[in-house]
Automatic annotation (TrEMBL):
Organism: Glycomyces lechevalierae
Keywords, in A-Z order: Isomerase
PANTHER family per the UniProt record, alphabetical: HYDROXYPYRUVATE ISOMERASE, XYLOSE ISOMERASE
Residues of the Xylose isomerase-like TIM barrel domain: 27-250
Molecular function GO labels: isomerase activity
Keyword Isomerase part of the UniProt annotation: yes
SUPFAM superfamilies: Xylose isomerase-like
Domain of life: Bacteria
Protein name per its UniProtKB record: Sugar phosphate isomerase/epimerase
Isomerase is among the record's keywords: yes
Length: 259
């Protein structure tokens, strides 16, 4: 299933715009685009929302017919348990998280937490990113060997480790439980001194998404594809928001056009 994530609304949630979207606003915008899935990922207010606010947000999602996934960072037992409780509140079946950083070992609480995730039918997906070698992430998943542990594939992130996106896709394919779908590209800095690595409108960058589809086969395996962006600030709020919305529509259309 195609879904939108919080990063597709990064600037629209930001206090740099006049009327930042609430979480419910983002739910409604998602539904207006004909999308039935939303991933609340790295959304800071989620950490401080009270029980009533959580219930109200979950109720809003259900009223709109949206399925919800969640996203956080870290492997601390308390955090994993909190997000399992949030998953229950939102009827979420997946929580994305990130291993804290290089050289960090799984906390002793990971295996007990995964037992609880297995019982609840919730998957914990560890995202590929530049702080942890993809090979180490795969080793962790294989060593723990839980049916509720897998990988959230974002090949854009690993370029900062000088890992090739295609190689990341191929190495992680058997373990992928979730996909972050965005395009990316290098552009020359002014004066031709160095490069900028940033987001691109889907289909106009370097991401070979056809290769990801053929290798991971997310649609055959029931793996959700979550739309995200790395959109730089466009100089003013109106242009930035307009561009963000355009990129979202373009990504949805691109994903729907690829079979």
């Amino acid at each position: 299933m195609i879904g939108l994530g919080t990063y597709a609304f990064f600037w629209q949630h930001s206090d740099r715009v006049d009327l930042p979207l609430t979480l419910t606003d983002a739910f409604e915008a998602t539904r207006d685009l004909g999308v039935d899935l939303f991933q609340i990922c790295d959304y800071a207010p989620l950490d401080t929302m009270g029980d009533k606010e959580i219930r109200d947000a979950a109720h809003a999602a259900r009223d709109l017919g949206l399925s919800i996934e969640l996203g956080t960072r870290g492997l601390e037992p308390e955090r994993l348990q909190r997000f399992l409780r949030l998953a229950e509140a939102f009827d979420a079946r997946l929580v994305r998280t990130m291993v804290p950083g290089p050289g960090s070992a799984p906390t002793p609480g990971l295996r007990p937490a995964l037992t609880d995730y297995e019982t609840a039918g919730v998957t914990l997906a560890l995202e590929t990113y530049e702080q942890v070698a993809t090979a180490d992430l795969i080793t962790l998943v294989e060593r723990v060997a839980s049916p509720s542990l897998g990988i959230c594939l974002d090949p854009a992130n690993t370029v900062a480790r000088l890992e090739q996106p295609r190689a990341t896709v191929e190495a992680t394919a058997p373990h992928v439980k979730n996909v972050h779908a965005k395009d990316f590209a290098f552009t020359r800095e002014p004066g031709w001194v160095g490069f900028r690595y940033s987001g691109a409108r889907m289909g106009e960058g370097l991401h070979d998404y056809r290769h990801l589809l053929d290798t991971v086969r997310p649609r055959e395996r029931g793996i959700n594809e979550i739309v995200e962006h790395w959109l730089p600030w466009q100089g003013d709020p109106a242009t930035t928001v307009r561009t963000e919305r355009d990129w979202t529509r373009a990504t949805i259309e691109h994903l729907r056009s690829t079979t």
